[in-house]
Structure prediction request, 806 residues.
Amino acid sequence: MTTTDSVDDLPDGPPMPPVHEPPPPRTDVTRKRMSIWDRTRLLLLFVLLFMIIVWAQVADNPLITFSDAFRIQTHESQWLIWLVGLEVLRQLHFFVSERSSRYHRFWSQKVFGGTDSALKRRFSDWTRFRLARLLKIVAFVALVAVVAAQILQTSPILALFEAPALIWQAAPLILQLAFAFFFVAFQFIGLFWLLSRGGVDTYYPDDIKTRFADVWGQDHVVQRIRENIMFLEKPEEIEAKGGYVPGGLLLWGPPGTGKTLMAEAVAGETGKPYVFVDPGAFINMFMGVGILKVKSLFRKLRKLSLRYGGVIVFFDEADALGNRGSLAGVGPGGVRGMGAAPSHSAGCHGFSYLSEDTRTLLTRSALSSGALSSGAEPAEDASRRSRFMMGGMNGGGGGGSGTLQALLTELSGLKKPRGLLNRWGRRALGMRPKPPPKYRILVMMATNMPESLDEALLRPGRIDRIYKVGYPSRAGRIMTYEGYLDKVPHEITDDNLEKLATITPYATGATIKDLVNEALITAIRDGREVITWKDVLKAKQLKELGPPEDVEYIERERHSVAVHEGCHAIVAARVRAHMEIDIATIEKGSDYLGMVASIPPEDQFTRWRSEYEADILVSLASLAGERMFFEGDSSSGVSGDLESATTVASFMEGFWGMGATVSSYSSARRLEVGSPGGGRGAGKDEKPEALLRRALADRIEDHLAALLDRAEEILRDNRSSVLALAHALETHKTLTGEDVEAVMSGREGPTVDGRVYADPEFQRQLEEYHAAAAGAHRAHAQIRLALPASHRKREEGSSAAATPAP
Prediction:
């Protein structure tokens, strides 16, 4: 092989990286321009010192005027004038260097370039900074000594030694001024210190007796919280593997579900101090007090954490802290438990027979500005708007300006080293301060308005885990009832407990505790010491409906209200399988004449078209029944029922794809798409949105009309059952769900014997009484017939059963 081989014969390899030559130095660089203050501060200092010298001479000799003293010092203090001149030349040098790159390059590279390079090689940046600072201090002291010598007519060295004596002579005046300053300052400090007290309660390990065994019905949440306790007590298990201890926990859910109780149980299980922060602690009259409270709170938490190895702080009603963000969308059903109802004319309690999801939907719809036919937003938009309205009342941060920001900083900000000697002493000696210790602080928050919390507060690192503490499941409700009933004497069986858990589907720990206590009060009022099943039912009725008003209907109105509620109950029993009738009553309440309340027999989390149509049928049963039983007449008491039916049908047709079309009304309205031929009687010049609303209104009306015909058909087929149930309501005023079933099926119930309603003769009497009531209704007269007495039939039936056959 020869050395003349060509390059092509060499083996292939990775290409050599291109060689980049360093760019040539720029020649147009000038000095960075100085600010006005940097350019004039030394000149101002020299002028100030000159004026002090002149003022001192005038003060020592009152016979000398200021102009004479100024002229004298111009000759005697020429050194100060020379310093002013040198400073002016230095600033002129900088001024030219800022505008001429050639001039700047000459001085920075050729004159001082070697000196700067030598200093950089010999000393570090920190050492050069300290040397420069020392030279500045020495120069300032020397300048002050020269000025003092000029005033005292002595040498600069002696002037420095005489300075303490002069300061001692001026001490009384200085102390007076200092006392006045600190007196005023301490007034404000004391005021703000007093205002920053309160709202924070500290409980030490022996003060809390609550344990996880005291939290019933929320086992899935308790299990997750136990993990936070494990990491709080044994942080090395996760930190040794490169993780970090979760330090923030948010519990959100409806009121009364046990969020505060869980926080107390965490403190009781861990044996750590428990700091309870009142929701109004950060709401103050003066701006800035909330910030002081936050700083004081976390200073206290850090001390407790170091002393006890950890601390738990609980912010109750955390929505008072901020309102700029949202936790998550809660869907069209929203958060359960909203009890407000759309206002309507006095009639039956139209919400009571609907499911909880439907009641929540109607409530959110009532918060909007108008009906869907007039272009109102859907439930999701209405809920967002209502959240904004509620959030706007909190003042942009709950505790005032800066409070939320201070809390966010404390939750995830940099922790400074502890101790004055550690921070300042070690830095003065050129040493690095010791890092702060790891503070074991578990921050727990609770709220029933998660949509009002700031998004920055909920990010990981501040709030690491978010748990919903919702309504207890059926098994959880049974466990909660058992826990509270075990504390009082009772005769409630296991079957009664299961029934009670079924008929209270959205009961929380607080409502269950209150129900058991009300049942105990009912038993004591009746002179008994043991709670019975009837006491529980009576307490449930009182809590859900409130005490009935002490009024009596006239006979024809009593009958019409009973027929109205009987139609609701019959249609609900015939078409709705996802709900059971809980109670039916014609006792007048504060905002209703009568009601039929229904409950779900099991926990369900999805809703179907057939269920919503069943809800609409139950709502329309009152109108269909009144028209059928009173010859086309109807009362204003159906207004709430029609509002409920219309709202549900609107969502079915426009948003849920459960109607004649599958398009979304909200999207079509937002995109301004509408069918030119949509809507009956539509004008040629109508806008697309108007056509869209008209088409939606037509579909809703068609849907409701079809369901109204179906409801009338169901009532026609069950006419005798409606009259039987109306008679039972007029006789007993309030019926349980089991009694309603007994009347419909003709069997004996807990309080009503329904066998009499299966008697054809008694059914004929009910028809006659209804005809008389309908005639009295038209004539506004008294009913000529007396209400048939079912108890006589029961007595006859009982005696007949007791008589032996011949």
Remarks:
- The longest strand covers residues 441-447.
- The chain has a mean pLDDT of 77.
- The chain has four domains: 36-172, 200-328+395-415+436-468, 356-363+553-789, 474-505+507-545.
- The first helix runs from residue 36 to 60.
